[in-house]
């Protein structure tokens, strides 16, 4: 059986499983569509939360970014994981105790303001739409390669799939689909990593293999990788380029994570507050299984790719064009991997041509400049099994895993958008008298519209999946996170303060992105091509979230202290949400 047929069978079987679950768990009420009827077991909710959380950025793109940048990009791991802990401890249990369906609903009731609710809806839509672009991009990459179609067709197939089970099942269908998707993605991610770790270090546990001895050199794997990169004139893999920016980016991801509405609403699906805490703990366990493996995947893949280009090191010869491995040729079909022999010598001299030592070596050997090697970092994890020459069934499994990661998070984001429009705008603001049947129809129509928009934007993404997602985290950090934190832990913040704080954080952050990222105005441009040397204090747009959050806090407190304090019943409500008394009860609150 050829590889393409095997891919179609495995991916098709996973799609059939998702469709079957959606039909079985079809939502019949708004409670089931928004919160799965609040009947999800904590362990299952933890697994679904992990799938919702570990998006295409985690599965497909994160290891690629770590592989090509090294230690500096471990901030993705630290920020996302730390932010989840922050959310689980400081937000999720209290929001579940409040007992509402959506994040804007909490903000609207806590700040006793329809205006605050609408502003929260706007923030949620901006965040979720930005985030979902990365998921649709990742899904398109996976489908295009493994089903042998172009990237646009791959995106359309992924969109049609998520349309079926998300529109049909709502939160109820999405929850149980995400449980299945977690099982698929974690197996798909782990098996190739185990094989590669065994090949390179003899250690079957990738996280330990990262610090083990390389079987070829007899030196630690990271020492071997650093030495090879140094020889080629690149930065050492374990060197941090700018600790200040790394810390700022980690903080942006942390507080952005804690403000992500599509993850927060997962904690509304369990029967009681104690279950929200337990599901948060289980989710962290399930997330750790992948996140402890990702650094090893990145480092080992970088070593494999570099030794492919230089089989005998710099002292030998660069690889001949006609000797490039089959996986190079296979991935070139997608347009995501390109190799150009610029000097026509039949070999690919891939090195840092800005390094003085490599310039001297190139002159000595008669090289006419570095070759053009275009390597889309989103393909690294998907190409890993082929790079390591693993069996065909492993390649098919990684295809299904990549799609599961992208589709699971895309569904959660689309549900958050749909719920905000149908429940917070239509039901609570524009048409309070709408029937439950009408609201459910509005939710499904909103979901379909969100999928169409996400597909359109996914055709012209601003960057790699993880980098696009990083922008969404910055927006969440600057807008919703401060409003949620102050809503739970401060009785003094009033509706005016929260509203102006969210607007200040969102507007200033968006303006910063507009200023430095041309893709907001020019479809098809890549954010990597729009870098600028005059960032404010040298802060890149993806790192701006904490600045926007700080402004949000300042404006909220200033306006609140200059205006009337919240009504006594609201202050009592805040107090009751924070006190754990009765948290383990079966009241649903």
Structure description:
The chain is an all-alpha fold and 589 residues long. It has one domain: Sodium/glucose cotransporter. Helices cover 68% and strands 1% of the residues. The chain contains 25 helices and two strands. A two-stranded antiparallel sheet has the order 1-2. It is globular. The chain starts with a helix and ends in an 11-residue tail after the last helix. The model is unreliable at 519-532 and 582-589 (pLDDT under 50).
Summarize the entry for a quick read.
By secondary structure, the chain is mainly α. The protein has one domain (3-301, 385-578): Sodium/glucose cotransporter, CATH 1.20.1730. 68% of the residues lie in helices and 1% in strands.
Give the secondary structure arrangement, pairings included.
Layout: H1 3-24, H2 30-35, H3 42-53, H4 56-69, H5 75-90, H6 92-98, H7 103-110, H8 114-146, H9 151-201, H10 206-209, H11 221-231, H12 243-258, H13 261-264, H14 273-291, H15 294-309, H16 326-332, E1 337-340, H17 356-365, E2 372-375, H18 380-387, H19 392-430, H20 436-458, H21 465-478, H22 480-489, H23 495-516, H24 545-562, H25 568-578
Antiparallel strand pairs: 1-2
Helix pairs in contact: 1-9, 1-19, 3-9, 3-14, 4-8, 4-15, 4-19, 4-21, 5-12, 5-14, 6-14, 7-8, 8-9, 8-19, 8-20, 8-21, 8-23, 9-19, 9-20, 11-15, 12-21, 15-18, 18-19, 19-20, 21-23, 21-24, 22-23, 22-24, 23-24
């Amino acid at each position: 059986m050829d590889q393409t047929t095997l891919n179609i069978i495995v991916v098709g079987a996973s799609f059939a499983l998702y469709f079957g679950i959606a039909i079985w768990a079809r939502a019949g009420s708004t409670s089931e569509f928004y919160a799965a009827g609040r009947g999800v077991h904590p362990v299952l909710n933890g697994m679904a939360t992990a799938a919702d959380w570990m998006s295409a950025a985690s599965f497909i793109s994160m290891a690629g970014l770590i592989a090509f940048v090294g230690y500096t990009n471990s901030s993705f791991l630290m920020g996302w994981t730390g932010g989840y802990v922050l959310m689980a401890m400081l937000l999720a249990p209290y929001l579940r105790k409040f007992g509402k369906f959506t994040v804007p609903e909490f903000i609207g009731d806590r700040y006793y303001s329809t205006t605050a609710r609408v502003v929260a809806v706007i923030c949620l839509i901006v965040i979720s739409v930005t985030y979902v672009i990365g998921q649709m991009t990742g899904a398109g990459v996976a489908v295009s390669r493994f089903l042998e179609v172009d990237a646009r067709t791959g995106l359309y197939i992924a969109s049609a799939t998520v349309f079926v089970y998300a529109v049909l099942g709502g939160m109820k269908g999405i929850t149980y689909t995400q449980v299945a998707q977690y099982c698929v993605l974690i197996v798909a991610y782990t098996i190739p990593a185990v094989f590669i770790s065994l090949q390179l270090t003899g250690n079957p546990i990738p996280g330990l293999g990262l610090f083990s001895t390389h079987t070829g050199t007899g030196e630690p794997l990271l020492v071997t990788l650093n030495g090879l990169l140094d020889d080629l004139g690149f930065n050492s893999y374990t060197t941090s380029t700018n600790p200040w920016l790394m810390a700022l980016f980690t903080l942006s991801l942390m507080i952005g994570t804690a403000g992500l509405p599509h993850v927060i609403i997962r904690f509304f699906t369990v029967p009681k507050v104690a279950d929200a805490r337990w599901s948060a703990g289980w989710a962290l366990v399930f997330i750790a299984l992948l996140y402890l493996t990702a650094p090893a995947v990145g480092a080992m893949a970088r070593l494999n790719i570099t030794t492919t280009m230089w089989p005998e090191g710099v002292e030998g010869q660069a690889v001949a064009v006609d000797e490039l491995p089959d996986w190079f040729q296979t991935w070139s079909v997608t347009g995501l991997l390109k190799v150009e022999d610029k000097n026509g010598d039949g070999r690919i001299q891939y090195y840092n041509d800005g390094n003085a030592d490599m310039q001297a070596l190139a002159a000595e050997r008669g090289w006419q400049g570095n070759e053009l090697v275009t390597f889309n970092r989103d393909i690294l994890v998907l190409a890993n099994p082929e790079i390591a020459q693993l069996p065909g069934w492993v390649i098919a499994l990684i295809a299904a895993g990549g799609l599961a990661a992208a589709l699971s998070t895309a569904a959660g984001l689309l549900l958050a958008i749909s719920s905000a429009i149908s429940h917070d705008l239509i039901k609570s603001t524009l048409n309070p008298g709408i029937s439950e049947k009408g609201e459910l129809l509005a939710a499904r129509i909103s979901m379909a519209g969100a999928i169409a928009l996400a597909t359109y934007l996914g055709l012209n993404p601003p960057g790699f999946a993880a980098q696009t997602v990083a922008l969404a985290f910055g927006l969440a950090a600057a807008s919703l996170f401060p409003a949620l934190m102050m809503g739970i832990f401060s009785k003094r913040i009033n509706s005016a303060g929260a509203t102006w704080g969210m607007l200040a954080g969102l507007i200033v952050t968006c303006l910063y992105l507009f200023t430095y990222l041309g893709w907001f105005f020019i479809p098809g441009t890549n954010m990597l091509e729009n870098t600028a040397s005059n960032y404010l204090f040298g802060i890149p747009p993806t790192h701006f979230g904490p600045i926007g959050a700080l402004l949000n806090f300042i404006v909220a407190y200033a306006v609140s202290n200059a205006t009337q304090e919240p009504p006594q019943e609201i202050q009592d409500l805040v107090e009751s949400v924070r006190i754990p008394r009765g948290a383990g009860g079966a009241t649903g609150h």
